[in-house]
Amino acid sequence: MIVRRRELLKAPAATLLSLGPDAWAAAAEGGPRRLIVILLRGAVDGLSIIIPYAEEAYYRERSSIAIAPPGKPDGALALDGHFALHPALAGLMPLWEKGELAFVHAAGSPDPTRSHFDAQLYLENGTPGQSTTRDGWMNRLLLALPGPRGATDAISVGPTLPRILTGKAAVATLPLGPGGARPLPIDQPDVGAAFDRLYSSDDALGRSYREGRAARTQLIAALAAERQIADNGAPPPTGFPGQAARLAALIRRQPGIRLIALGLGGWDTHVNQGNQTGQLAQHLRPLGEGLAALARGASEVWRDTIVVVLSEFGRTVRENGNGGTDHGHGNVIWLLGGAINGGRIYGDWPGLASPQLYQRRDLAVTTDFRTVLAVILERHMRLADLQLDTVLPGAPPVSLELAHAVRA
Amino acid sequence: MVGIALGRACVLLGASASVIILTAALAGGAELASDREIIHVLNRLAFGPTPEELQYVKSIGVERYIAEQLKPDSIPEPIELRSRLAPLETLKLDPVQLRQLYGPLPSLRGFKPNVDAEKAQRERARLVLHDAAEARILRALLSRRQLQEVLVDFWFNHFNVFSGKGLDDVWIGNYEQRAIRPFALGRFRDLLFATTKHPAMLVYLDNTLSTAPGSPGARGRQKGLNENFAREVMELHTLGADGGYTQEDVITLARILTGWRVNPPDARAYPEHGAVFEGARHDYSRKVFLGHEMKSRGKAEGEEALDILARSPKTARHIAFELAQYFVADDPPAAFVDRLAARFIDTDGDIPEVLKTLFTSREFWENVDRKYKTPYQFVVSAVRAAGVPVGNVRPLLVAMDQLGMPLYGCLTPDGYSNTEDAWLGPDATTRRIGFATALAQGDLPLYGANGTGSAHHVDAARLQALLGPTLTEATRQAVIEAPPGLRAALLLGSPDFMRR
Predict the structure, then answer these.
(1) Checking DSSP bridges between strand A77-78 and strand A101-108, what pairing results, if any?
(2) In a domain, B492, yes or no
(3) For FRET with A380, which of A18, A78, B289, B420 sits at 20 to 30 Å CA-CA?
(4) Contact residues, A window 152-191, toward B, CB-based 8 Å cutoff
């Protein structure tokens, strides 16, 4: 059943309550809601993440890279009678069992491009097919959120600002590597004072300078304090699990952080993708472990947090001539958090038989990625319809089934 | 031809000091070029000014300087650069030698080399990547063929390969030296051919594995097509994403390029060649590519396809846009791009001819200090302006890494962007200031071969004399009022120095 967003909001309270009986009460007590977006740049193979193990076509088209079905040695982890999780993501099973992890399969962009760079642009500017939109939808979201804005309400993890967070609102950038909290010359009072004066102008450079100074003061202090407690002399963890643990500490100490974006690369598996082991598995394992660490470390603020993991498009159903996959279309979107109605897979599954495929080669898209985001923005971040139109203009209506994925 | 930079006068438009138009440069008068105009040229055709370079341009004139830079082979390289490059032995090796000496150890009679030996070999291989990086940085700092080095940065990102894939860590320096630098100021077609055929590119975008299904050479992991290179060569290297090709064209080009591969280590045929065409893997069927019925077969078919791509007007427009964006403004005017594209078409992709049109354009002279430096440009220009000797390039590589632009470390085939929205951000600004301060105060271990030599404080008065014409009044005041020990740091970390 498809309903318009407006109708959903106008529906009798009982309808809304039926989607999550405790939702309003919990929300009233909860702290600020936050959204973490993880972009898997390079087009991850969603058919290896949520494996349609009941489909004969999956094993027929992927003779060397299919993941063994549940029950076989190193087989996929059954989620229901049709789908299973990649075994390298076993670290996420507790979240699935607790109902804090869901997936939307056959999701993606309405735009047909198989260019990484165009597709990532659309994922980030939120207007598929329109490359002229210069700002990112998360920056527009930041502008639409009520209340005064601080220098660290939105954070990009890494040294530069990705398109998704580019725009009018101030965003902090924070490298979360093990040395991210190390002091810089600018932290010395005399150096800081001299540069404060030099960068007092109200232009792009002056603003970025002041945002950087404010962010350093707040974020670095939080990270440094956490490190002393958490490390206890042990070397800090590296890679994504280490970043995720530091990220968890950060949002626990600074619950005012509302939006975080983070990109991970290395998913463009044209060659030797592997199956239950191999290249893709080696990339998925730290991702799963890191997400589990984030959930654990966020502790009481996990309840107010939603993590969405998405990629610019999926990969071909049929493996290519080199044990890899080429650029495809539909993919899977991951949803994690205390506010997720998890333990289930959302979306309409189009099937993998040849006539069911997009251009007879790729998983079709049955859910526009913007509708998944719209549900989160509306029900979790509490955006009204009008504001939603500024963040994701032209997003198609949300199905009632999908609306259920997020507790209000 | 429009006269170049033969006047004075920087005109400030409105209240914004950032909009400077070097109008006199267009007038074609007989006056001498101002320091401001010379610095503009050195900011765009070089990695920023040095006192020596400024004097040199002053003495010969801007017009002659540009003409010289467009013919790099005529410019002698300084002895210091030649003597610093000479001991970098791995730069002299070809891809086959590099693989023999630094690639994975071969199995002997079926026995794999032991784990320690493999580890030691990987350690040794790191030297090759370091030699490449050292040579690149030294050339950017010291070469008098500055435009060539600027174009190496430009074309390397256009035809990006990543040192983290396969053997590309040991091949990437050779790729830059053999496929990029010799053609940086040559013909676009030659660049396209050289990069496509280099083992580093064949590995990076997987064409080395792409095989006609059912061909005699199809076996194991090499039993079918791989679309990766075919798509990116059209999207990124030639036509552009809006170049009008279809998914069918991607597949057809992949079929055309089947058999273009890295020569295996045990090859009997052409053992001295890094890349070969293997007919046993080629798809010899008839093909229609971008509406052209392909005339040739085999290796020549790939060359025919590359020629179609190199000569397409879409390619001309794409390259013209990128050059205009790199040398003029993030959003170059469409009419200007069209003019460059027309020149590209008229000259069959002659890069110096296109650049000549660009450097004599009104748009080039009207957009002063509008480009925000990339981390690479910022670091290199700061060290050049500071005039400090560099014995050890590692702190510069670390700075590029921390600023998000590790040299040879761009994972994706689109290469690093050079626009402001890609690089300007809060962390970038504080970290650039950190680098500027450490450089100015002699805190970077740049001296001596291992960074153990004595520190050089940067002379603030000398720096101020060099950068003076580019400074806004606000910067000038802030520098004057700062403690003397911080002045050089402020100059190199100033908003004015972040742009070129």
Answers:
(1) unpaired
(2) yes
(3) A78
(4) 156, 158-161, 163, 166, 170-175, 184-186, 190-191
Residue B486: list chain A partners with CB under 8 A.
190-191, 194
Do B221 and A271 lie within an 8 Å CB cutoff? yes
**One-letter identity of residue A210:** R
Residue B297 and residue B326 in one domain: no
Q: How far apart are CA A313 and CA B169, in angstroms?
A: 29
B353 and B331 belong to one structural domain: yes
Give CA–CA dist B366/B360, Å, rounded.
Answer: 11
pLDDT tens per residue, chain B (500 residues)? 333 333 333 333 333 334 455 654 544 444 567 999 999 999 999 999 999 999 999 999 999 999 999 999 999 999 999 999 999 999 999 999 999 999 998 887 778 888 888 899 989 999 999 999 999 999 999 999 999 999 999 999 999 999 999 999 999 999 999 999 999 999 999 999 999 999 999 999 999 999 999 999 999 889 999 999 999 999 999 999 999 999 999 999 999 999 999 999 988 989 999 999 999 999 999 999 999 999 999 999 999 999 999 999 999 999 999 999 999 999 999 999 999 999 999 999 999 999 999 999 999 999 999 999 999 999 999 999 999 999 999 999 999 998 999 999 999 999 999 999 999 988 899 999 999 999 999 999 998 766 666 667 899 999 999 999 999 999 999 999 999 999 999 999 999 999 99
B459 token code pair: 């002379």
How far is residue A219's CA from residue A86's CA, in Å, rounded to a whole number?
35
Q: Which of A114, A195, A266 sits opposite B493 (nearest CB)?
A: A195
Please report the domains of chain A, with CATH numbers, ordered by start residue: 5-178+239-403 (3.40.720), 180-235 (no CATH)
Tally of structural domains, chain B: 4
Residue ending a domain, among B69, B95, B121, is: B69
Contact with chain B for residue A139, Cβ under 8 A: no
Amino acid in position B353: E
Domain of B356, in residue numbers: 313-366
Same-domain check for residues B411 and B292:
no
* B248 Cβ contact list (under 8 Å, min separation 6): none
Sort out which chain A residues have CB atoms less than 8 A from B423's CB and list them.
160
A199 touches chain B (CB under 8 A): yes
Do B378 and B484 share a structural domain? yes
